[in-house]
Amino acid sequence: xxxxxxxxxxxxxxxxxxxxxxxxxxxxxxxxxxxxxxxxxxxxxxxxxxxxxxxxxxxxxxxxxxxxxxxxxxxxxxxxxxxxxxxxxxxxxxxxxxxxxxxxxxxxxxxxxxxxxxxxxxxxxxxxxxxxxxxxxxxxxxxxxxxxxxxx
Length: 152
Ligand SMILES: Nc1ncnc2c1ncn2[C@@H]1O[C@H](COP(=O)(O)OP(=O)(O)OP(=O)(O)O)[C@@H](O)[C@H]1O
Ligand SMILES: [Mg+2]
Known about the structure:
- The chain is an alpha+beta fold.
- The protein has one domain (17-147): 2-Layer Sandwich (Heat Shock Protein 90), CATH 3.30.565.10.
- The protein is built from four helices and five strands, in the order E-H-H-E-E-H-H-E-E.
- The chain has helices spanning 28-44, 49-70, 102-105, 119-126, and strands spanning 21-25, 73-82, 85-94, 129-135, 139-147.
- Strands 1-2-3-5-4 form a five-stranded antiparallel β-sheet, covered by helices on one side.
- The longest helix has 22 residues, at 49-70.
- The chain is globular and about 45 Å long.
- The protein binds adenosine-5'-triphosphate (ATP) and magnesium ion.
- Magnesium ion binds at residues 61, 64-65, 115, 119.
């Protein structure tokens, strides 16, 4: 993950196109929509209200980053399952300037914009898996997975 700046983006769940949704992010309105769509998909897939909020919060942070650092990009959502495991994968892509030092960007308090520097590390903590693929001039792709807690 963090370190060499190049990663596979592989989550530990099979990827598919079923139940997918894609959203362009070019404005604050799109950030609000992305949050809502993420929450609705999560609700429809049976995530708890608490986890719906957690997913929406993570989406909000990475979508805000797209707007702020890359100006535009897209989010896609996938509902995935493997045996009894169910989850939601969110991929954020942009063709912005890229992140030169991913390990640093993931540290609490690191910001190049005078922000709090909590968006990326916060989103990572909220999700079960989190992967950043970014390089200078090649944009940024963030892939994150939230697993549904099994009902017992
Ligand atoms: N999509 C992106 N493209 C380029 N750089 C990014 C992107 N997302 C994050 N970064 C870089 O990573 C840093 C950390 O991001 P993070 O979201 O944690 O903090 P922040 O946006 O600066 O502040 P905030 O706490 O308000 O989110 C940013 O300051 C920026 O330098
Ligand atoms: Mg941020």
